[in-house]
Design brief:
Elements lengths: L1 E6 L17 H11 L9 E4 L3 H14 L6 E2 L9 H5 L7 E6 L3 H11 L13 E6 L7 E7 L2
Parallel strand pairs: 1-4, 2-3, 2-4
Antiparallel strand pairs: 1-5, 5-6
């Protein structure tokens, strides 16, 4: 299995709620730039947080990728979701992109690679890590590559 873990693009600082924050123009541009890294990757699907900025990010990547994918919103991929519970919502095979937030993207990557939630890398906005694993579980992944806008 291959999992690309992505933090959403730069978002507006304020909105009626955190869930409603939208991408800035710079955020949309950085996502479009880094999405170029995934052209040629045969994605089986795109998963994303229900928060607006993650949904916007996933839609931009889907458009740039051109694979005809419609992002699937998953409630368990919000900023404060528990990484162990998030692992349980990942597909067991295939090639997937997950678009979410800090601290989940870092904690999930740390759990999958090093078995420790706090061992994950820091994620700038728009950053993607490529993980290879036999199946999603603690300590089962290898961090192959990092893509930055």
């Amino acid at each position: 299995m291959k999992l690309f873990v992505m933090r959403h693009g730069q978002a507006e600082a304020y909105a009626a709620s955190d869930e409603q924050r939208v991408l800035t123009e710079e955020g949309r541009e950085e996502v479009a730039r880094v999405a170029q890294s995934l052209i040629g990757v045969k994605l089986d699907g795109i998963l994303c947080s229900p928060y607006q900025r993650a949904r916007e990010t996933a839609a931009i990547v889907a458009g740039v990728h051109g694979g005809g994918l419609t992002p699937k919103v998953v409630d368990g991929f919000t900023p404060d979701s528990a990484p162990r519970e998030a692992v349980g919502q990942l597909p067991e095979e295939g090639v997937w992109l997950l678009v979410s937030h800090m601290p989940l993207v870092s904690r999930l990557t740390g759990l999958l690679v090093d078995s420790h939630e706090h061992a994950g890398p820091g994620f700038n906005t728009g950053m993607i890590t490529e993980l290879d694993m036999d199946y999603p579980a603690a300590g089962m992944a290898w961090l192959k590559k990092t893509f930055r806008p």
